[in-house]
Amino acid sequence: MNIGQASKASGVSAKMIRYYEQTGLIPAADRKSSGYRDYSDTDIHMLRFIRRARDLGFSVAEISDLLGLWRDETRQSAEVKRLAQSHIDALEKKIADMQDMAHTLTMLVNACKGDHRPHCPILQRLETDQDDEDLTVQPRSGAIARSVQ
């Protein structure tokens, strides 16, 4: 089947199929006499494997390792489990980091009056290296204080 058919059958875009071939993640497809790529059922199976791994957030390098393990019938499942566990650990770290970011932004949004005054704890936090939880608004250095009427 041609690349368009392979894309539809596997759920991987034609552009990504070409990229995977170019980077060596998958072997180059056979070519028809017309020069068009010709994908086999085995190629489609491999592309589906890659798509499912990408859906789980594995990097191209990790997928390359997974493909190597998948092809190696003498592998030990412990190797696969180690790679998957490492990926879980990285995902959990990203989740924790994102929760920390959301917490900080929530605190900053709650501390911001959102009124006509120019002082804003959100911008102040972005302007400084302040890492503590003190969200009191300080005038910017060089800012001209306005009198509130």
Record keyword descriptors for this entry.
149 residues, mainly alpha, Multidrug-efflux Transporter Regulator, Chain: A, Domain 2, two-stranded antiparallel sheet, 58% helix, 3% strand, elongated, coiled coil, MerR-type_HTH_dom, DNA-binding, Tscrpt_reg_MerR_DNA-bd
Could you walk me through the main structural features you see in this protein, from its secondary elements to its overall organization?
There is one protein chain. The protein is an all-alpha fold. The protein has a domain at 3-58: Multidrug-efflux Transporter Regulator, Chain: A, Domain 2 (Orthogonal Bundle), CATH 1.10.1660.10. Helix content is 58%, strand content 3%. The chain has helices at 3-10, 14-23, 41-55, 60-71, 77-111, 121-127, and strands at 30-31, 37-38. Strands 1-2 form a two-stranded antiparallel sheet. A hairpin with a 5-residue loop joins strand 1 and strand 2 (37-38). Helix 1 (3-10) packs across helix 3 (41-55). The longest helix is centred in the middle third of the chain and has 35 residues, at 77-111. It starts with a helix and ends in a 22-residue tail after the last helix.
